[in-house]
Amino acid sequence: MVVAKVRISSGQAMALASVIAQSGCWSMLKGGLTAHYSTPAELYFESESSSIEIWVDNVSLQPFTKSQWTDHQVKSIDRVRKRKVRLHISNKQGGNLQGAKISLNHRRSHFPLGCALASTIINNTAYQNWFAPRFTATTFDNEMKWYYTEPRQGFENYSVADAMLEFARKNNVSVRGHNIFWDNPIQNKAWVKELSPRNLMRASKHRLNSLLSRYKGQVIAWDAVNENLHFSFFEDKLGANASAVFYKMAHKHDSKTIMFMNEFNTLEHMEDQKSSPAKYLEKIKEIRSFPGNEKLVMGIGLQSHFGEPNIPYVRASLDTLGATKMPIWLTELDVERIPNQAEYLEEIMREAYSHPAVKGIIVWSGWKPTGCSNMCLTDNNFKNLPTGDVVDKLIAEWKTQALVGKTSVDGIYEDEIFLGEYIVTISSLDIGEYVEVQLEVNEETSEPLDVFIFI
Questions:
Q1: Is it true that the peptide bond before 179 is cis, omega within 30 degrees of 0?
Q2: What is the mean pLDDT of residues 372-385?
Q3: Closest CA to 10 of 39, 33, 34, 36
Q4: Nearby residues of 182 by Cβ (< 8 Å), 6 or more positions away
């Protein structure tokens, strides 16, 4: 592991990026930092091994102003989250209809922007009314986790998860399955930790079979093994390939659902080298190289529990991970209770949404009357807090506002709109016709979407 660092005149050192360098070839290292003031600084590279000779070539440091950074985000959003649509309106004889009135109503965004869901949603009308109109995706706080569904061996209870899933289904909210296994020993029940390796494997197989057979086809993703870069409970008990074995088993039971890793500090804290982008990719390679996992479809889950964010490092890390072409989700996004909490949340969400590799965001704010994990979006009366206002602002900003226009002399109406589902209405006073059609604008290509409608 080679780490790039900057040391300033006071002696303080800051990590910028890291890479698992291979002997005899060049390795790409990409990182970033936010400079809050001007001071002399030294860029240097270090390794855990003092016997390694490090060669560095083609070093580039590119400064950006905040306005330049924001401009890049806006251009990226226009490129990856929008698409030009051309509506060709004709009469039933095939003639172009000039002056036909067109309106587009954006019903549902293509990009999944969601919030964690707590069991308190059940039978809580106020919570339901706040949640359902806003979000298109969710992850349950605890209610699918092993310690919740089987607190005592052999006594399983999925009733709460079932009820939450039913709420999500009725409101067209996609659900991420979280999680099958958690590698942190603290997050496993005492009866699990007391099992012999043989009995633990037997119980783990039962856990996986029970959970996936129940919810197969009802979730869009599985966090198959949680936090297996920082912890190793199952590896310590079952062997070094425990994670790879679990992914193989999960894929066999549910081959159509993406299996995610889910880790913290990959974006949040560059000083934590256990879960750096390089370490993350190394673990994915290890899992996929296990016999039987060659066709395993994996996703990159980034928990994203932030303090003050280092946005340039976030972008560099997303670039590194995104080069794999695997889908990236921010799975548990929150910001700790510090000054500028809402401002930092907005910065992170804008950076993630503008990155082409990011395919979804879950804000980690499942509501409980006793308080949320780190960050709430509402008070106990479901009135927005500043963080909730940020989320609402971005939901509105990333949605095409109602568009009204008329077709040209060629019978064409065109505009650039956010990806998603639309209701299009066309009316023509000349022929006295009115038509309403559903339209899906997806990202299958960057070319304009031509839609031909006859009325």
A1: yes
A2: 96
A3: 39
A4: 145, 146, 147, 188, 225, 226, 227, 233
Element (H, E) at 37: none
Residues shown for the chain: 455
- For residue 89, give the amino acid letter: I
> What pLDDT score was predicted for residue 337?
95
Q: Measured between alpha carbons, how far is 267 from 309 in angstroms, rounded to an integer?
A: 9
Beta bridge partner(s), residue 408: none
DSSP 359-372: EEEEE-----TT--
**Residues 6+ positions from 177 with CB-CB distance below 8 Å:** 144, 211, 215, 219, 221, 222, 223, 257
Asked about 308 being catalytic, the answer comes back as no
143, 150, 227, 263: the catalytic one is 227
332 is catalytic: yes
pLDDT over 70, % of the chain? 100
Query: Helices 197-215 & 242-253, crossing angle to 10 degrees?
Result: 30
Per-residue pLDDT, averaged over 112-119, amounts to 98
Which of 143, 150, 263, 332 is an active site residue? 332
Spatial CA neighbour of 327 closest among 360, 354, 351: 360
Buried b (16+ CB within 10 A) or exposed e, 77-100: beebbbbebebbbbbeeeeebeeb
Name the amino acid, one letter, at 363.
Answer: V
Q: Cα dihedral sign for 368, 370, 373, 376?
A: positive
Predicted TM-score (pTM) of the model is 0.95
